Amino acid sequence: MTGKPLPMAQTISPALREKPKRERLPEWFRTSLPNGKQQAIFNETKAAVADNKLHTVCQEARCPNIHDCWASGDATFMIAGQECTRGCRFCAVGTIKTPPPLDADEPKNLAEAVTSMNLKHVVITVVNRDDLPDSGAEHYKKCIEAVHLAQPHITLELLCSDLAGDMDALADLLHKLTTLSIRS
Asked: Is the pLDDT of residue 13 over 70?
């Protein structure tokens, strides 16, 4: 068989191939970067976190909504370090078997940041610290207490770890939090 190649045997340059049409994301799925006053609030939030040597789940988990939250002065503080002792596949927080010791100044720094940011609602979460005897329950309590003492009228949302399944540590933490709310 000589002559012209069959049409299906021809090679088409990648540049000439028809590209499939990509659908755009729906409007509700898109986010915009802050500007103007919102950019200033975002920068203040970022500075307060950095100046007080704090960590946020927003940064550590690479949250795509960080600009929306920080531009409105919201942040989810992550205490007990920036790395977790577990390696959950769904989570972007760093993992380390033996993290550095807890920062004894973290409760004070957290309370100062919350005060300087003029927050009315604070979300506090904690990394898993399976390396500690109480899985960090006492440190968690100190952070919550420091924020409560500095800003007694603020609302707190707590996202607690499982404390390595230690029901005694959980019961102790809950008891201390209950007495904290009774005193105010």
From this structure: yes
